[in-house]
Amino acid sequence: MKKLLLLFSLILVFTTGCTTELSERPNGIYVEKSPTEFRTTINFTSDRELTITKIDGTSKDYSFSVGEMIMSLTPKNEATYPSINLFYHYTDPNQFEIGNIYTGDTDVMVFVRPPTK
Q1: Residue 57: which pLDDT band, with cuts at 50, 70 and 90?
Q2: CA angle 64-70-75, nearest 5°?
Q3: Residue 94: how many other CB atoms lie within 10 Å
Q4: Domain spans of the chain?
Q5: Rounded to whole angstroms, how far apart are CA atoms 40 and 53?
Q6: 82-93 pLDDT, tens per residue?
Q7: What is the rounded distance in angstroms from the CA atom of residue 72 to the CA atom of residue 18?
Q8: 25, 74, 93, 95, 101 from 49: Cα distances, Å
């Protein structure tokens, strides 16, 4: 019985230690604060899907997963594009940091909830 309890405890530790809690994931709409304010909007449409809209109006839908300091983005509707792994740091429900989604740009991007009117 002790071995079964130990095994269950180990499984619980490994499964909960590898992913970020849902409460530590952004939800809703966030706008880029830096390095270029309002250049990009990210809309978290569900626990696993988001849409990135650039200032020129183009947008792309992604499936995403969040791990320890990493967000993986997989383009939807484009089977030939691989997933990309970006640095990710959840600051609080109103802000997060992510590796730059723009090719060749190495600055970390900071996103915040847009101000309410």
Answers
A1: very high
A2: 30
A3: 10
A4: 22-112
A5: 6
A6: 889 999 999 999
A7: 14
A8: 12, 9, 17, 18, 16
